[in-house]
From TrEMBL, chain A:
Functions as component of the Arp2/3 complex which is involved in regulation of actin polymerization and together with an activating nucleation-promoting factor (NPF) mediates the formation of branched actin networks. Component of the Arp2/3 complex, a multiprotein complex that mediates actin polymerization upon stimulation by nucleation-promoting factor (NPF). The Arp2/3 complex mediates the formation of branched actin networks in the cytoplasm, providing the force for cell motility. In addition to its role in the cytoplasmic cytoskeleton, the Arp2/3 complex also promotes actin polymerization in the nucleus, thereby regulating gene transcription and repair of damaged DNA. One of its GO terms (molecular function) is actin filament binding. It comes from Sinocyclocheilus grahami. This is Actin-related protein 2/3 complex subunit. GO terms for cellular component: Arp2/3 protein complex; nucleus. GO terms for biological process: Arp2/3 complex-mediated actin nucleation. Keywords: Actin-binding, Cytoplasm, Cytoskeleton, Nucleus, Repeat, WD repeat. The keyword Cytoplasm applies. WD repeats lie at residues 48-82. The gene is LOC107591785. It is found in: Cytoplasm, Cytoskeleton; Nucleus. Transmembrane segments: none annotated. Belongs to the WD repeat ARPC1 family. Pfam families: WD40 (PF00400). PROSITE patterns: WD_REPEATS_2 (PS50082), WD_REPEATS_REGION (PS50294).
From TrEMBL, chain B:
Keywords: Actin-binding, Cytoplasm, Cytoskeleton. This is Actin-related protein 2/3 complex subunit 5. GO terms for cellular component: Arp2/3 protein complex. It holds the Pfam family P16-Arc. It comes from the Eukaryota. GO terms for biological process: Arp2/3 complex-mediated actin nucleation; regulation of actin filament polymerization. InterPro entries: ARPC5, ARPC5_sf. It is found in: Cytoplasm, Cytoskeleton. It comes from Sinocyclocheilus grahami (Dianchi golden-line fish). Gene3D superfamilies: Actin-related protein 2/3 complex subunit 5 (1.25.40.190). Transmembrane segments: none annotated.
Length: 370, 145
């Protein structure tokens, strides 16, 4: 497990390249910085300046090596590496509010942008006009889209929104792909069709994730709950309320287990049991440093009693690795089926890489591989 | 001066009502939720608490029902002895603790002479079981008790 502090400002968003030697991140401003790993250090090799507003989403397509970024300036750019320079191509999203999140589809021929305009822009490249074109999914979204994730079939798109719902839409573009085969979520998938809409949880949906097979979708919402829905004739939902602060990002690491992180600054493991359609808490995944416990003097005790009305000797210092909320989590290797390493970035400007095997030995957490 | 600057009736118009994009919550049918039956609450305190927390008027739009429910629950909470609070909270399940937190915060909104102190004790015990998550759920719930 390693932690690297990149900046003092929050890292708004990050994305890794295919072989995980380079990371693109936004240091809470209008630029995207690309760092390259050499040895134990990270050196900044590129600065991508084109946006006029904070960059809110970055995604790096592993096979075609293109980066798509979106920002509060209502634009998205697709960057291609020409020689040693990243060249941007503007994509007109036709939105009148900030873009919030962007994701390449698994085949990298489309990407989806969620925005505050209460719609999702699905963009694809039109060969004849040599231009990125977008189509909108508007109904029945009633508020900002905060997070997106693609189904492995390249057609279905899960979106979490501020109208308290997680939905699965069809983003089938007939110009670039063939009709999809039926999935657990339904068989008729015209563009914009709602295949699933969540009920039960309230609170903004901060993070959404499909499992590796695409049959399950998990979402974390602002009422401190995590929920998993399994597709089928009738979708089965299981949710778990937690005693912690809300979680901001969630990802599957095997078909049955999820890792989520948020305002409590440490990642947590959840396990989903499909037989009982129930979720359970798997354990805190942080590895805290052992701080020396010094004894309290009588003077300190009275001071504590005066200030905080308690004689507890616990200082108000976070023991977790991240010192501020974790805003994004990404899988480094193993994919969503057998994740071996994942990475978290947060508001403290730092990035931590977590090793699943080491964590499961150290913390005695059970990670069900199936 | 022109005559139309004298009228200020336009200031009383609530323009948010006319906004086409205004968010309206999903309308759930308020099933027969009359709130807890006030008569039963005079016997055993533990049972009284469970009865009071039954049938919360969450989906109801009728403020009178909500007032009655709140008053009933507050009566039960204030008649508990301090030492009995902790076992009572422990006897509730997760949803019960969340519901209790909602009533506690509703009780904070209208403090009376004795209510705040006892509510704070209830809050401390409920927080120990429900954690920050239960408080977050009180803040984010669209359907209040």
């Amino acid at each position: 497990m390693s932690y690297h502090s990149f900046l003092l400002e929050p890292i708004s968003c990050h994305a890794w390249n295919k072989d995980r030697t380079q990371i693109a991140l936004c240091p809470n401003n209008h630029e995207v910085h690309i760092y390259k790993k050499d040895g134990n250090n990270w050196s900044k090799i590129h600065v991508l300046k084109e946006h006029n507003g904070q960059v809110t989403g970055i995604d790096w397509a592993p096979e075609s090596n293109r980066i798509v970024t979106c920002g509060t300036d209502r634009n998205a750019y697709v960057w291609t590496l020409k020689g040693d320079v990243w060249k941007p191509t503007l994509v007109i999203l036709r939105i009148n509010r900030a873009a919030r999140c962007v994701k390449w589809s698994p085949k990298e021929n489309k990407f989806a942008v969620g925005s505050g305009s209460r719609l999702i822009s699905v963009c694809y490249f039109e060969q004849d006009n040599d231009w990125w074109v977008c189509k909108h999914i508007k109904k029945p979204i009633r508020s900002t889209i905060l997070c997106l994730d693609w189904h492995p079939n390249n057609i279905l798109l899960a979106a979490g929104s501020c109208d308290f719902k997680c939905r699965i839409f069809s983003a089938y573009i007939k110009e670039v792909e063939e009709k999809p085969a039926p999935t657990a979520w339904g068989s008729k998938m015209p563009f914009g069709e709602v295949m699933f809409e969540s009920t039960g949880t309230s609170g903004w949906v901060h993070g959404v994730c499909f499992s590796d097979s695409g049959n399950r979708v998990a979402w974390a919402s602002h009422d401190s709950t995590v929920a998993v829905a399994e597709g089928g004739k009738t979708a089965v939902c299981a949710s778990l309320t937690s005693e912690t602060l809300p979680l901001l990002c969630v990802t599957f690491i095997t078909e049955n287990s999820l890792v989520a992180a948020g305002h409590d600054c440490y990642p947590v493991l959840f396990v989903y049991d499909s037989n009982k359609a129930a979720m359970s808490f798997g354990g805190k995944l942080d590895v805290p440093k052992q701080s020396a416990q010094k004894g309290m003097t009588a003077r300190e005790r009275f001071q504590n009693l005066d200030k905080k009305a308690t004689t507890d000797s616990k200082e108000a210092v976070l023991e977790s690795v991240h010192k501020n909320s974790i805003s994004q989590i990404s899988i480094l290797n193993g994919g969503k089926a057998q994740c071996a390493k994942f990475c978290t970035t947060g508001m403290d400007g730092g990035m931590a890489i977590w090793d699943v095997k080491v964590l499961s030995i150290v913390k005695h957490v059970r990670v069900q591989m199936q | 001066m022109a005559k139309n600057t004298l009228s200020s009736r336009f200031r009383k118009v609530d323009i948010d009502e006319f906004d086409e994009n205004k968010f309206v919550d999903d309308h759930d049918e308020a099933a027969d939720q009359q709130g807890p039956d006030a008569v039963e609450i005079d016997r055993d305190m533990m049972a009284a608490l469970h009865i009071a927390l039954r049938n919360p008027p969450i989906n109801s739009k009728n403020p009178a029902i909500k007032e009655r429910a709140q008053a009933a629950v507050l009566r039960v909470l204030t008649s508990f002895k301090s030492s009995d609070i902790e076992p009572a909270v422990k006897s509730l399940d997760k949803n019960g603790v969340d519901l209790l937190m909602k009533y506690i915060y509703k009780g904070f909104e209208r403090p009376t002479e004795n209510s705040s102190a006892i509510l704070l004790q209830w809050h401390e015990k409920a927080f120990a079981v429900g954690g920050l998550g239960s408080i977050v759920r009180v803040m984010t719930a669209r359907k209040t008790v």
